[in-house]
Amino acid sequence: MSFLSLILKNPFRNRTRAFLAIVGIGIGIATIVALGGITDGLIASAEDTLHSGGTDITITGSSSTSVSDQSSMFGTTKLNESWVDKIKKEKGVTEAVGVYSSTIPHDNKIMSLVGINPSDVKFAELNIIKGHIFADSDAKEIIAGKVTAETNNVTVGDEITIGDETFKVVGIFESGNSNQDMSYFMTLDNMQDLMDDEGNISSIFVKVDPKMEPEEVGDALEDKYDDNITVISSLSDLGMAKDLIDMLHGVSFGISLLAIVIGGVGIINTMLMSVLERTREIGVLKAVGWSNKKILMMIIAESIVLTVAAAIVGTIVGIIGVEIFMSLNILGGMSAIFTPQTIVEAFSIAIIVGIIGGVYPAIKAVRLPPTEALRYE
Question: What is the DSSP secondary structure assignment for residue 204, as one 8-state letter?
Fold first, then answer.
């Protein structure tokens, strides 16, 4: 039997022990893959929202370091509606639209609401798949995103009471943006009335002249208006969002570290048992001329085979598990994205666990005196 064949077959001589080792490490890998996919999905979704409708830059009120002063999901403050006309006149700005977005508790769930002027709806690129858009600014009408409509069994003609106001659902839309498709849209006037915040908006979506760079226009706006506005061209411009992403990455790192420790202990135990059971066999290999280096490599490689098998199983389980959760809407309409980087990280961790877990048993194996090993029963 070749050296490679030994490495591939030895870990599975005791199938029950190999199965338990793969399951133990696989659970950690599945968690890493699932959390990585969800984190990447959140980041992509937030970026899509910032650039919905072809938006080049988003303008909000100034960033606030005080939680009590923060009035938007970006950790920024509201703007007066008059800023829309002011921004429209700036060099390099071809279009500017003011929106008011917020989330409120509703029927023990979180309802995402967006207010926008009827004349600006085309900017959001909402594809009405049933019914029609709200008629005018005063109409007590609302349209629902496809995901929200499916999740809450909402259809055209239904009535929804929010606060003291009752709105008629006149349309269902699809935008391709998961955040928008989980929201309700109404007129800006209705949204401001509902939030008792007349004259204010949460953000301005801006399209930039194709001949100019969005960063160039954004820098010029920030230089001119200094502390009054926050210009966002990507998530990295948002301290609050950056903190959230860093936190998610921190959680993912913590789980990875935990998987390495638990998986390492488990694989050390598995490989020690394997070396103990094969003491006489290792003695024979030494007697026929196998070097300590070759035996060391064999034991470590067998450990890596087990952890790579666990990585394959864990990756498949992690992806399928998240897909099932998404299909059952357990993730609240959230989308996960599985990038090659996430898969590479999962397999890298598995290989590290294999190396760490295999070193000690391998050292124990090479230290066995051949004569003693051959007498072992």
Answer: E
Looking at residue 72, the DSSP 8-state letter turns out to be S
Low-confidence winner among 45-54, 150-159, 280-289 (lowest mean pLDDT)? 45-54
Q: How distant, in Å, are the alpha carbons of 39, 148, 242, 374, 375 from that of 292?
A: 45, 64, 50, 16, 19
Is the separation of the CB atoms in 187 and 98 below 8 Å?
no
The token pair at 357 is: 């877990």
Half-sphere exposure of 239 (CA within 13 A, CB side): 10
Q: What is the per-residue pLDDT across 324-343, written as a single tens digit (0 to 9) for each?
A: 888 877 766 667 889 999 89
Tens digit of pLDDT for each residue in 90-106? 888 988 889 998 888 88
Helix segments in the chain, DSSP class H: 3-9, 15-50, 83-88, 121-124, 146-152, 178-181, 188-194, 214-225, 239-277, 279-287, 292-327, 340-366, 370-375
Q: Is residue 221 within 8 Å of 59, Cβ to Cβ?
A: yes
In this prediction, residue 59 carries a pLDDT of 86
Identity of the residue numbered 323: E
